[in-house]
Amino acid sequence: MKPYKIALIPGDGIGPEVVAEGVKVLKAIEEVDKNISFSFTTFPWGCEYYLKYGKMMDEKALDLLKDYDAIYLGAVGYPGVPDHISLRDLLIKIRRGFDQYVNLRPVSLLHPDLTPLKAKSEKDIDMLVIRENSEGEYAGAGEWLFKGNPEEVVLQTGVFSRKGTERIIRYAYEEARKSNRTLTSISKGNALNYSHVFWDQLFEEIGMEYPDVETYSYLVDAASLYFVTQPERFGVVVTSNLFGDIVTDIGAGITGGLGLATGANINPEKSYPSMFEPVHGSAPDIAGKGACNPIAAIWSVSQMLDFFGLEDWGSAVLQVIREVLKDKESLTADLGGRATTEELGEYIIEKLIK
Ligand code: ATP
Ligand code: MG
Question: Residue ranges of the Isopropylmalate dehydrogenase-like domain (predicted)?
Fold first, then answer.
């Protein structure tokens, strides 16, 4: 049996601590399921690497990574290294280089105590946000005119190609059809009179091919309100790069915060590896203390297993996370418990393989 080849980029701060727990989960699965095997290679890239060598990754990084089935990333970031460098030279480089144009962010409440929203339960908050991950408002296009003059003008251009917009919308329709859920598009066609008019038009056009999928289209401002007041309105959600960035943080806010949020950067065609990562950063304030919460990183592992087509294991991991969240004592300090990172990781594995 061919092993799934996984490239590990543990990164900085708590990154290595949470990745270690995720890897243990994969190894435990391999141990009990003889039909599955994984191989791991660690790459020491990130901000510490940058401080030593003046670059975030090896020059040949993309070449070194391209034959892996998946990349498992911890976190990058370090006090003293500007965020835009760590983002641009590692995360964005991999996302763009490997055309990971789908950002998959589940926004699911795993335990009712985790939401600040009164009277909302697990069945009310259970959505999948699909964020465009390769162009749009974050394409980096624009111009700085008359710099330093009183006439100074700065242009930031959103880039919405037909190909780029169609493929993300189509991906979302497929996902909604497959999971038999509603599909909501979030945009701002009334104010962004080129880009989002185009987005809305394509959402409708492609919808003709999916008459079985129930659709909604909300303006981003209204959608932000509904995320908080009526999250039960949403099933699968598709949105642009900028709006996806923002609404998924609202999503994290209503489901228990950063220690729990996960995101996958997917290249659906599998021409290149996809990348799985917890949403949180390197959290230098708690790094090295064995105090961080590994659940977001372990949820990333569940997403990776789904992506490999090992959905039984993917769901099993998520189910165990739900169960563990019921037992407050077994959790890390951010969730009010007293366990260390490793203790919580071990507890999850124990429940998973029994
Ligand atoms: P970076 O610069 O890498 O983004 P950051 O400190 O700006 O790091 P995060 O690491 O994303 O931002 O998180 C902010 C705070 O949330 C952290 O300082 C930490 O206290 C808390 N936090 C984040 N992730 C976790 C986690 N997995 N477990 C416990 N607390 C966490
Ligand atoms: Mg940060």
Answer: 5-348
CA of 191 to the centre of ligand 1 (A): 34
Per-residue pLDDT at 44: 97
Which residues, 6+ apart, have CB-to-CB distance to 243 below 8 Å? 131, 186, 187, 188, 220
Are residues 39 and 4 in contact, defined by beta-carbon separation less than 8 angstroms? Answer: yes
Distance 280 CA to ligand 1 centre (A): 5
Is 1-100+267-354's fold the same as 104-259's? yes
Give the chain's length. Answer: 354
In this structure, the dihedral spanned by the alpha carbons of residues 159, 164, 165 and 168, taken in order and rounded to 10 degrees, is -130
Nearest atom, ligand 1, residue 83 CA: 2
d(CA 46, CA 212): 45
Cβ(338)–Cβ(287) below 8 Å: no
* Integer Cα distance of 123 and 224 in angstroms: 19
What the block records as the tokens of 222 is 């209204």
* Distance of CA 46 from the midpoint of ligand 2 (Å): 14
CA 162 to chain centre: 24
Global ipTM = 0.92
Give residue-wise pLDDT tens across range 13-43. Answer: 999 999 999 999 999 999 999 999 999 999 9
How far apart are the C-alpha atoms of 107 and 252, rounded to whole Å? 7
- CATH classification for the domain delimited by 104-259, as one of 3.30.310.10, 3.90.1150.10, 3.40.50.700, 3.40.718.10: 3.40.718.10
